[in-house]
Amino acid sequence: MISFNIPTHTDKTTEYILDVFKEKHASGDGKYTKLCNKWLIEKLKCAQALLVHSGTAALELAAILADLKPNDEIIMPSYTFCSTANAFVLQGAVPVFVDIRPDTLNIDETKIEEAITPKTKAIAVVHYAGVACEMDTIMNIAKRHNLLVIEDAAQAFDSYYKGKPLGTIGDMGCFSFHETKNVMSGEGGLFVTNNLEYAERAEIIREKGTNRSKFFRGQVDKYTWVDKGSSYLPSDVVAAYLYSVLEISDKIQQKRKKVWNTYYSAFEQLEKENKIRRPIIPDYASNNAHMFYLLFNDLETRTEFISYLKQNDIYAPFHYIPLHSAPAGKKYCRTNGTMSVTNKVSDTLVRLPLYFDITDEDLKTVIYKILEFWSKR
Ligand SMILES: *Cc1c(COP(=O)(O)O)cnc(C)c1O
Q1: Helix 236-246 and helix 249-266: axis angle, to 10°?
Q2: Domain boundary at 246, 280, 315, which?
């Protein structure tokens, strides 16, 4: 069987996890959390990076920081994971969906301005498949309308817009280290910001609304409840796992790019014959090889394709059911304009197996079976 994803661990993973117990500190903000924070701040060149227990937690932290009032509106794509919207719904805000671009499948920046109302507070962008949104245009719209920009960079580790690390361009950035992402700790996430005011409050919100971090640094002589918050710290056991993976992240990225490029060349001919469309990476964006997808012309062919691969023990899933058509999306959100690209992509996209430990043999089998599917038609 060829899985869609297999989580990665390294030679060091168990050693670091056992070391956590030698340190006698398995809760949050221990030795490995500090090592990860330092590593990530250097990598992302940002003012603050806080390890949290999931990408969802990072988004929730961002939504609390945004200080939303009931019915404030957040503009975002519908073609995303539910956590992008859910984080704001929890704060009583209303996600407002606009359509995506047919090339990158990211929010269509030309449709943002027409969705702005007096209630709009923020734009939440999602860098789908790790490919950057058109950030200059989006930051400019935000500036003119006094809106926050929150980047859902869950898939965007080691990816860039005009050389700038994704997640660090807007006011706040949210990463995920779920086992399906490029670097992982099973569950895990990261909140980043370059705004020092947000940085100070984020630290408090992450620690149940207390100034405990300041207390540990000796900046206050006792700690207390000072703001709203929750518990977003991961255990240092999780951080130890993450640190072992960060240490090999260059190798992971090299391998993923190699697999991605192999798929890309293998399906060139199919694209020329108009059978599928391969991912498009604009000049302003880098490719972190988070995902390799194919876009089909219609739902029927995609359904046959997925079942053909499944019969051959290869798991290639489709992706999001658009949030505007999900039961909770209908209840808590609204759309602005048509969702035609979103609906079409939702019906026609397939993701191919892509992970660090995929063997050359399995990769060849996947490609062979895909070409065979088409040659039999
Ligand atoms: C993975 C993902 C999330 C959620 O991350 P978790 O770590 O699973 O909570 C949010 N948004 C997007 C776009 C994602 O891909």
Answers
A1: 60
A2: 246
